[in-house]
Amino acid sequence: MSGSPKAVVLVSGGLDSATALAIAREEGFEPYAITFRYGQRHGVELEAAKRVVAAGGVAEHIEVEIDLRLIGGSALTADIDVPKGRDLEQMSDGIPVTYVPARNTVFLSFGLAWAEVLEADHLFIGVNALDYSGYPDCRPEYVAAYEAMANLATKRGVEGSRLRIHTPLIDLTKGEIVRRGTELGVDYSVTRSCYDPSPAGEACGQCDSCLLRLKGFAENELADPAPYQSRAAA
To answer: What pLDDT score does 57 carry?
Structure first.
């Protein structure tokens, strides 16, 4: 994709980021993928990110290591139980314990730094503000505020090369995300979204992330190709 505009894409290994990567490519960008080993309690999503990148094709993929376990405060980084079996009303009631304090702000900062070095003026993140579990850093107003800050805080921004943060999934339901990715040929079998997978990498089928993901596939009358601990749960 020589000559195409560069874009940094945050890739976690989940369904949303895999779809955002496919959209970046479909829109003509040369993607540079960045993944974070941030102290999450399992490495399943990191292995999934490698598969997503290999399947999606990128110019370069880096894995940044930071340790948010030092801060804690989340079921994804500390010894706190992951909620299971919640309905949509429960998911939307407040901010859940799976929220990692300031995670997207931290991730976007690294993405922004790399974009500046690459002389890339585009950054993709697969946040979603509809079928999401109450995360404050997935909202459109947050992304708009961060983009404004980014253009004040960087050499490129000050010199007139404005960064744009792309959120192609932000107004889509999980079902619409699955449909869009399927149209683009995303191989969802390599992705993992579970908050509490088995050591073998099988999804639990009961955490908020699994339930929303399964809902998205069901809305398209598709079976989720990712492995689950119990297909009955899926």
So the answer is: 87
Q: Of 85, 74, 6, 14, which is closest to residue 44 (Cα–Cα)?
A: 14
What angle in degrees, to the nearest 10, is found between the helix axes of 174-183 and 208-219?
Answer: 60
Report, in this order, helix, strand and coil percent for the chain, each rounded to 5. 40, 10, 45
Residue 75 pLDDT > 60, yes or no? yes
Q: Are 36 and 64 in contact (CB under 8 A)?
A: yes
**Residue 3, pLDDT score:** 82
pLDDT in tens, 129-181: 876 557 889 899 999 999 999 999 999 999 999 999 999 999 999 999 999 99
- Give the CA distances from residue 195 to residues 51, 202, 208, 234, in Å, rounded to whole numbers and listed in that order: 18, 11, 8, 15
> Does residue 96 surpass a pLDDT of 70?
yes
Structural tokens at position 72: 């804690």
- Per-domain boundaries in the chain: 6-219
Q: State the Cα angle at 152 between 146 and 155, rounded to 5°.
A: 120
**6-219 is a CATH 3.40.50.620 domain:** yes
Angle at 178 between CA 173 and CA 179, to 5 degrees: 95
Q: CA 220, CA 95: separation in Å to the nearest integer?
A: 28
Record the pTM. Answer: 0.94
pLDDT at 232: 41
C-alpha–C-alpha distance, residues 95 and 39, integer Å: 20
Going from the C-alpha of 136 to that of each of 94, 128, 179, 198, the distances in angstroms are 10, 11, 25, 28
Residue 196's contacts (CB-CB under 8 Å, 6 or more residues apart) are 82, 84, 204, 207
